[in-house]
């Protein structure tokens, strides 16, 4: 008998399903959210250096975070958050940001608690809330009406709608900025609105900021934990994988006031306990280097967004060329595109009960050899039909991959115009 | 800066009188915090302390010879380190791999264990890669154990089993290994499971029994007959078996490690756990695996999908290569699966000898890299240890703290691995780890030799 807590809807299975389909059809893969280029040399060198370090590099390190790493994270982020972060009390290193999220939900959400999730949301939040015995309450970002929706900045959260979702059972709100899949970078005023509600109703805030260094067009990433009254109630989550384009290293962290982090440590010590030593040492070295180069052109945190800025433009123009309407992301790895202007005859009757965007994505893989992810996968069941005309592209890819995608899109638009 | 921030900053930056003033001023803030709903979920109630938290910092003093925590200070084989460095230089190896296990690794595991089990093992459905053996234990508990279940745990046990069972909402039911009567224990084989006692622990609520063979901390290897007895009960009561076999390769001369999953009727109800860290002396890589039937493994996979999704890629690639390399060498002296055990047997015997020199009695382990040591013959006077904890602290806890402070030698108290009911049976033992380089064992030897001499002169 499987444990009852396994009655979690397997929302993440789409990732597995589409990956398999993409491989089967040898599709150009703009679905999966990871780079197909290598991490920067300085970080892979740091890893190799760690590997050839003494025996301690291959044995258990401090369970809550390798000292070199927590110290470099504390040093680096203290000046950004505007608060002296204690490396040993206020930081927990985890196996990717994913495990940090898991620790937050398990440590702080109990049977009957409600958790507000802003949609569209990275799909793991919902099953994690359920696994912790909580209830997910959704509030969607909505495109502003009346104007052409061209940017992720045109999707906003209604203060009234958000406030209306808060009940005496609400324990926490989860935000993700820059957002996956939309790419929205919450402005200071928007975060202030959320902060005001958190303080008024004494809520916790889980802020997933894994894409924090990837902002475009001058958008500024603001940490909600740096707003007055928020440090003591916010868990801020970060990712070494996204920071250094090495998603396969699975080094993440949670940062926040020690009185909250200590509960997450208890979950961590009774589930995983230690994270891999050498990978942590390498990420620590990465942050040391970035600390020295912060704000300068040699900083990877300047170079990567600059490089991705162009890739983003390139993909957007390819999509417009075939009549699709991309929504320019202010940040992150992804771009969503409105597909409602394209009429497609799905000959596949097997999928007729699925959401439109799911059918579209499968059709796009099979018929055009291009892999993406349907955006309604990032919505609750109650709202998914409202938002089923969008698909998500990852543009954090080599130029050759984006060129291949462009070829496919060009051929497609030529086919369309020749009919 | 806000008032709240000011006070938070003040209270941790300053100690002493300034902090007191700050505390008075910040009372309303802390009052607000205390009255807030920033309380933890019930599932972690009482699970915050553990023996490692207590002893790791004590033993971290570099002047202390650390035979406490269970990890090698010997280097891992060079080919695994090389494989890791090589993996990092391959672009694709730095990005996410398959969630349930990197294909080269699950295939290597399927091959190695297919050979060991004598049955085909499906790499994609019957194997899950996890963050250490620890992560496998967690995925197993979360995937298969429910609120209200009972889980039988054999004492002494690796200490994480109890909090994991509790976190799953279940109740641990203990059965101690007992010492054969009339024997002053000399080997781990002198500890046994009483069949009637074991049988009495199975109830209609029993979901699983956890076994650990070779056992940490005693080093006992469950015999085929003992495993058959456990298997018979599992089949009779239709319970699961979680078999923690992380030390499976560390078997000493004359011993045989038997996998309970190979006994008739057991494959379909057993999850077997292994560890790259223990196999290749790379505990800091934190990779492990669960092997079992698809209908059970799929629940562990669901847990994985909702907890950390995937394990690090380059580490998995390197372990895969290490396994394939040794697969070719099985039966040959260079095979690490057997050569490490040979190396450790020498260290085991050396450790036993130097411990005896100090007047302590070792329990020679049949497997694993720990040794229980009976310190009762020393009748050590611990009165000069100011106990800041209550007087109910078990003898071995007091002894180890004293030994770290006075003798600069660290061990782990064995009652950390038993329930309260069994404390009195185990509090005369401390646990030493002997997977240490010769210089560490030399240093321990010097302390133990000196100890004996000090005792002699003080009499």
Automatic annotation (TrEMBL), chain A:
Pfam families attached to this UniProt entry: Aminotran_1_2 (PF00155)
Any single GO CC term annotated in Swiss-Prot or TrEMBL for this entry: mitochondrion
Cofactors that this protein relies on: pyridoxal 5'-phosphate
Functional pathway: Amino-acid degradation; L-kynurenine degradation; kynurenate from L-kynurenine: step 1/2
Taxonomic superkingdom: Eukaryota
Domain Aminotransferase class I/classII large residues, every copy: 27-403
Name of the protein in its database record: Aminotransferase class I/classII large domain-containing protein
Annotated gene: kyat1
UniProtKB/TrEMBL annotation, chain B:
InterPro entries reported in the protein's UniProt record: Aminotransferase_I/II_large, Kynurenine-oxoglutarate_AT, PyrdxlP-dep_Trfase, PyrdxlP-dep_Trfase_major, PyrdxlP-dep_Trfase_small
Pathway the protein acts in: Amino-acid degradation; L-kynurenine degradation; kynurenate from L-kynurenine: step 1/2
Keyword Transferase: yes
GO cellular component terms, A-Z: mitochondrion
Domain Aminotransferase class I/classII large: 63-438
Cofactor(s) needed for function: pyridoxal 5'-phosphate
UniProt-listed Enzyme Commission number(s): 2.6.1.63, 2.6.1.7, 4.4.1.13
Keyword Zinc-finger recorded: no
Protein name according to UniProt: Kynurenine--oxoglutarate transaminase 3
Classification lineage: Eukaryota, Metazoa, Chordata, Craniata, Vertebrata
Name of the gene encoding the protein in the UniProt record: kyat3
């Amino acid at each position: 008998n499987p444990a009852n807590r396994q009655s979690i809807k397997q929302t993440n299975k789409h990732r597995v399903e589409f990956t398999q389909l993409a491989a089967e059809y040898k599709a150009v893969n703009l679905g999966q959210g990871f780079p197909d280029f290598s991490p920067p040399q300085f970080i892979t060198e740091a890893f190799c250096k760690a590997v050839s370090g003494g025996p301690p590099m291959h044995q258990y390190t401090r369970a809550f975070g390798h000292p070199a790493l927590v110290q470099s994270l504390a040093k680096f982020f203290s000046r950004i958050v505007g608060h002296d972060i204690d490396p040993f009390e206020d930081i927990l290193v985890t196996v990717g940001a994913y495990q940090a999220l898991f620790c937050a939900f398990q440590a702080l959400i109990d049977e009957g608690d409600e958790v507000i999730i802003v949609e569209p949301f990275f799909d793991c939040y919902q099953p994690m809330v359920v696994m912790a015995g909580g209830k997910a309450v959704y509030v969607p970002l909505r495109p502003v009406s009346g104007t052409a929706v061209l940017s992720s900045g045109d999707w906003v959260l209604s203060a009234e709608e958000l406030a209306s979702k808060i009940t005496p059972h609400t324990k926490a709100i989860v935000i993700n900025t820059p957002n996956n899949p939309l790419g929205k970078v919450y402005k200071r005023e928007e975060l202030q609105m959320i902060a005001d509600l958190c303080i008024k109703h004494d809520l916790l805030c889980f802020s997933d900021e894994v894409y924090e260094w990837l902002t475009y067009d001058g958008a500024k990433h603001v940490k909600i934990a740096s707003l007055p009254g928020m440090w003591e109630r916010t868990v801020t989550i970060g990712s070494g994988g996204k920071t250094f384009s090495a998603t396969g290293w699975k080094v993440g962290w949670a940062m926040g006031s020690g009185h909250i982090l200590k509960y997450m440590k208890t979950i961590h010590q009774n589930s995983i306990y230690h994270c891999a030593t050498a990978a942590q040492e390498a990420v620590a070295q990465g942050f040391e280097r970035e600390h020295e180069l912060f704000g300068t052109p040699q900083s990877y945190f300047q170079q990567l967004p600059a490089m991705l800025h162009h890739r983003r433009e390139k993909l957007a123009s390819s999509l417009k060329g075939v009549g699709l309407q991309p929504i320019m992301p202010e940040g992150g790895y992804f771009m969503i595109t409105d597909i409602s202007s394209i009429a497609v005859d799905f000959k596949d009757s097997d999928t007729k009960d699925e959401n439109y965007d799911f059918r579209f994505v499968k059709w796009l893989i099979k018929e055009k050899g291009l892999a993406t992810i349907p955006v309604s996968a990032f919505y609750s069941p109650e709202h998914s039909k409202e938002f089923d005309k969008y698909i998500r592209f990852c543009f954090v890819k080599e130029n050759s991959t984006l060129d291949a995608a462009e070829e496919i899109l060009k051929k497609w638009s030529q086919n369309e115009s020749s009919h | 800066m806000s008032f709240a921030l000011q006070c938070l900053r003040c209270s941790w930056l300053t100690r002493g009188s300034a902090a007191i003033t700050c505390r008075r001023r910040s009372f309303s803030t802390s009052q607000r915090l205390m009255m807030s709903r920033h309380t933890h979920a019930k599932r972690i109630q009482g699970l915050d302390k553990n023996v490692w938290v207590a002893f790791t910092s004590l033993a971290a003093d570099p002047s202390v010879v650390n035979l406490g925590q269970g990890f090698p200070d010997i280097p891992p084989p060079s080919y695994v380190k090389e494989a890791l460095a090589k993996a990092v230089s391959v672009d694709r190896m730095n990005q996410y791999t398959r969630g349930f296990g990197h294909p080269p690794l699950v295939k290597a595991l399927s091959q190695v264990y297919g050979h060991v089990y004598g049955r085909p093992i499906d790499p994609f459905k019957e194997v899950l890669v996890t963050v250490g053996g620890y992560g496998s234990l967690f995925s197993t508990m979360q995937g298969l154990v429910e609120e209200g279940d009972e889980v039988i745990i054999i004492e002494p046990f690796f200490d994480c089993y109890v909090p994991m069972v509790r976190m799953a909402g279940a109740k641990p039911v203990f059965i101690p290994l007992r010492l054969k009567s009339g024997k002053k224990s000399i080997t781990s084989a002198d500890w046994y499971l009483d069949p009637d006692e074991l049988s009495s622990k199975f109830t209609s609520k029993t979901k699983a029994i956890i076994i650990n063979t070779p056992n940490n901390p005693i080093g006992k290897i469950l015999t085929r007959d003992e495993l058959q007895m456990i298997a018979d009960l599992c089949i009779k009561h239709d319970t699961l078996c979680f078999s923690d076999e992380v030390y499976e390769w560390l078997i000493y001369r004359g011993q045989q490690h038997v996998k309970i999953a190979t006994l008739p009727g057991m494959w379909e109800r057993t999850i077997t756990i292994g560890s790259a860290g223990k196999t290749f002396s790379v505990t800091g890589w934190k990779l492990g695996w669960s092997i079992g039937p698809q209908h059970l493994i799929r629940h562990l996979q669901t847990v994985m999908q909702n907890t950390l999704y995937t394990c690090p890629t380059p580490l998995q690639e390197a372990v895969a290569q290490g396994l394939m390399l040794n697969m070719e060498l099985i039966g040959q002296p260079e095979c690490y699966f057997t050569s490490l055990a040979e190396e450790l047997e020498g260290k085991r015997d050396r450790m036993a000898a130097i411990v005896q020199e100090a007047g302590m009695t070792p329990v020679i382990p049949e497997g694993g890299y720990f040794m229980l040591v009976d310190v009762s013959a020393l009748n050590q006077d611990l009165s000069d240890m100011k106990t800041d904890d209550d007087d109910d602290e078990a003898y071995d806890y007091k002894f180890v703290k004293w030994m770290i402070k006075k003798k600069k030698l660290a061990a782990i108290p064995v009652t950390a691995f038993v329930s309260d009911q069994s404390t009195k049976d185990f509090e005369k033992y401390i646990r030493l780890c002997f997977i240490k380089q010769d210089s560490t064992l030399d240093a321990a030897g010097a302390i133990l030799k000196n100890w004996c001499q000090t005792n002699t002169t003080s009499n």
